[in-house]
Amino acid sequence: LQALQHIASVIFRDELPDHQRLVVDCLDFRRSKDAELRQMALFLGEKAHRTGLEQKLGPLNAYERRIVHMAVGEVPGATTESTGDAFSKTVIISARK
Question: 38 Cβ partners below 8 Å, 6+ apart?
Fold first, then answer.
């Protein structure tokens, strides 16, 4: 699914308005995976805020990390940071100081 999305994005890159992304989904597979990842991020963000302990999530690709950063951004008292190198970074979720 990711490979197909990449190919479609390259093909239609010049036809899409700026800052608009092409997302390929099949039978809501991506939507359900994104929702599951978002729920996990919210849960871990609340847990980090409540306990004060860092929570790790990953390795994740850039698309998945963005979902986590945006979801945890909605949790008051929690923050995120990406660590690692290349394409499989880990997201550290911690209590905001």
Answer: 67, 68, 71
- In whole angstroms, give the CA distance from residue 81 to residue 72: 10
For CA atoms 8, 4, 67, 89, the dihedral sign is negative
Global pTM reads 0.81
For 32-75, the pLDDT digits (tens) are 999 999 999 999 999 999 999 999 998 998 889 999 999 999 99
The Cα 64–Cα 60 span in angstroms is 6
What CA–CA distance (Å, rounded) separates 90 from 65?
A: 8
In the chain, the amino acid numbered 52 is G
Averaged pLDDT, 77-85: 94
Alpha carbon distance, N-terminus to C-terminus of the chain: 39
For 57, the token pair is 């999530």
